[in-house]
Amino acid sequence: MLIVKDLNTYYGAIHALKGVNLSINEGEIVSLIGSNGAGKSTLVNTIGGLLKPRSGSIEFEGKDITKVEAYNLLKEGISLSPEGREVFDSLTVEENLKLGSYTLKDANKINELFNYVYQLFPKLKERKNQYAGTLSGGEQQMLAIGRSLMSNPKLLLLDEPSLGLAPNIVAQIFELIKEISKNGITILLIEQNAFMALKTSDRAYVLENGKVSLEGPSEEIIENDRVREIYLGI
Asked: What does each C-alpha distance from 208 to 18, 37, 79, 92 come to in angstroms?
């Protein structure tokens, strides 16, 4: 479904991604783990069209999307739930969700997606008329994911969905990620919580200093001695 080939992305003179290769098959949950500054968010923002690589390519369903602008990627079926949630504080929950569906024209489909998101996140339905800025951190994360689902994506990019959340909410978010996957949405999961990411995903990539240092099935990555020492604290 997604093929990233020899991707090189820069921030000014800083070489942030150094020849990254990555692939995601339809229906998979693939996790990307690594420490702060490893290049995880740079990679997801490059895939999502927010950053442009200096070289390399990104293919989605056989189409080169390397130079496609972020807002047009929604029409291709790629949606990003960004790090830090980035909800619109002064808009209600329902208004935030509606913004996620702006590329869709079919009112029936939009209503169907509202029902799906509210079924997935009952708390959002309870608070649909509440301003997003008054929600708890966990509720805002649910809203950010729900908004990204409102574009009816084929591929969902989740950037640090557990960041800053209490452990019980983190467990809830990861269960919801599995539920989203069961509904046929392919997921790239970018996470610092390596243990939860590896427990949730089918395959994983370890990113270090802008390069992929390790890849494979998640159950193998979680047993790797170096991963256990550096990222799992075992």
From this structure: 10, 8, 25, 39
pLDDT band, very low/low/confident/very high, at 163 (cuts 50, 70, 90): confident
In DSSP terms, 118 is beta-bridged to none
Alpha helices in 24-158 (DSSP H): 40-47, 70-76, 93-100, 107-120, 122-126, 137-149
Q: How far apart (Å, rounded) are the C-alpha atoms in residues 10 and 127?
A: 41
Q: Mean pLDDT over residues 77-104, rounded?
A: 91
| Rounded Cα–Cα distance for residues 151 and 166 (Å) | 28
Chain centre to alpha carbon of residue 131? 24
Give the mean pLDDT of 41-69: 95
Rounded-to-integer distance, Cα 145 and Cα 6, Å:
29
